[in-house]
Amino acid sequence: MMAATKRAAFGVTAAALTLTALAGCSGQEAPEREGAHGAKKAPAAAPKSPVRLIGDGSTAYTGAQPLQPVPKKLAPGEKPPQFVVFSWDGAGEDSQRLFSHFRKVGQQYNATMTYFLSGVYLLPEDKKDLYTAPRHSSGRSDIGFNDVKGIKDTVEQIRGAWFEGNEIGTHFNGHFCGNDGGVGTWSKEEWKSEIAQAKSFVKNWKSNAALKNLKPLPFDYEKELIGARTPCLEGRKNFMRAASEMGFRYDTSGVNDQIWPEKQGKLWDLSMQLVPVPGRAFQTLSMDYNFYMNQSGATRGDEDKHEYWGNQMRDGLVQAFERSYQGNRAPLIIGNHFESWNGGTYMRAIEDTIKTVCTQKDVKCVSFRQLADWLDAQDPQVLAKLRTLKVGQAPKTDWATFLNPAAPAQPAAAHAPGTTPAERH
C-alpha cells in the first residue's frame, strides 16, 4: 500500500460481462536495445549544454528521450508488425515494489510500456488541501495521498522508466467514480482543471514534499504528457474535448474490439479491448481488474483457485494476442494496476504474458506514445484498409496483395461471432 494512504485503483466498476453487458472495468540510462519499430536508435548522448531546470526544479529539459524507435511507413504490401501495449493505471512505487519489478521485466523482454501516474502520488498528505477536485471539497481523494518516502520512491521509478524509453502518462488525481461527483459528471472545463492540477503536482513535487536536494524528473511534463486513461473509464466524452484543446494525442478510456484504431477528432482512439475468458461463454475487458471482478468479485477468493485464475487471465490475453498476430494484426491493448489482488495472481499472469508475446517474431511491445507515432507515420488509406479486417481476420489474399494500393477493399469490419458491440462507459 502507498505509505500513510489508502491506495485503491480500479478499472470499470460493473461486476461482470456477458454477451450483452460489459464488466467494468534509476536515474541511469538503460543499455541499448532494439527499437520497438523502425530503425534501432542508440541512447542519446550526454547533453552538450547543462540540464535546463523548469520551475522549482522538479522537472527539467534533458534532451530527447533515449531509446525511442524511429517510426517507419509501411512499404506497399508490407505486413504490419504486431504491436502490444502494456500499461499501468495509477503508477506509483509502494512497499510491493511492483513498479521497479516491471521495469526490470520490460528491460529483460524488450518491452517499453506506459505508466499512467496519479498526480496525488506526488502530493504529501500534509499538503492535500492543494488539491481541489471538481465537485468535491479541497483535500479529498478516493485513493488518498502519499508520504515523503513514497514520493521519493515513485520519483525514482518515474525517472528510471523514462530513461529506459517508457512513457509517463496520467491517471489524473483523486480517482472519483460514480454519479456523486465522479469524473463521468464533469464538464470540459472541470476536466481542464483536473488535468492542470495533475500537471502541477508533477511539476512541483520538490516544493510540495520539501525534497529540494533530489534530482529532477528528466522531462518537461507539458510536452511529455500526451495521453491518459480516465478513472473507471468514465467521463470520456468531455475529457476528450478538454484533452483535444490541451495538446493530447490519444485516449485509452474506451472499450472496443481488437480492430485497428482510428482517430476521434484530434485524438487516436486506443481503447481497451474485449478479450476471451477461457472456459467461459463471454469476453471481458483486457485489464487485470476485470478478470478479478469476474473471478472473485472484488474479494480475496479461494486460495486454491488463485493459480487457475491467473492462468485463465494469462491464457485469455495470449488467445487475444494470437487472434491478432495470426489475423488482422490489430494492436493489442492491455491495462493493469500495481496491485496484489488474489495473492498477486494477476501480476504473475501479466509477467507470463510479457514473456510469451514480446519475444515472438515481428512483435513490438511499445508504449502508447510509440504506437501513436507509428500510426501517424502511416498512409491513412493503408490504415483505413486495415480497419476493414474483422476481429481475428487475416486478409483473404496474402498481405502483399491486400495492402497493395491497387487491391480492392474487403468488406467492412464486423464483430466476431458470439460477441456484440461493447457498451460504452
SSE order, as H and E? EEEHEHEHHHEHEEEEEEHHEHEHHH
Mean pLDDT: 88
What CATH architecture would you give? Answer: Alpha-Beta Barrel
How many helical stretches?
12
Low-pLDDT residue spans: 3-42, 412-425
What is the CATH fold-level name? Answer: TIM Barrel
Strand content: 5-15%
Write the CATH homologous superfamily: Glycoside hydrolase/deacetylase
Structural class: alpha/beta
Integer tally of domains: 1
**Helicity level, as a percent range?**
25-40%
C-alpha-based Rg, rounded = 21 Å
CATH class annotation = Alpha Beta
Mind summarizing the main beta sheet?
5 strands, parallel
Oligomer status:
single chain
Distance between the termini: 28 Å
Give the overall form. Answer: globular
Organism: Streptomyces finlayi
Region (Disordered): 29-49
Protein name: Lipoprotein
Keywords: Signal
Tell me what you see in this structure.
By secondary structure, this protein is of the alpha/beta class. It is built from twelve helices and 14 strands. Strands 3, 4, 5, 13 and 14 form a five-stranded parallel beta sheet that branches.
Could you list some keywords that capture this structure?
alpha/beta, single chain, four-stranded mixed β-sheet, five-stranded parallel β-sheet, disordered N terminus, 14 strands, 425 residues, 12 helices, TIM Barrel
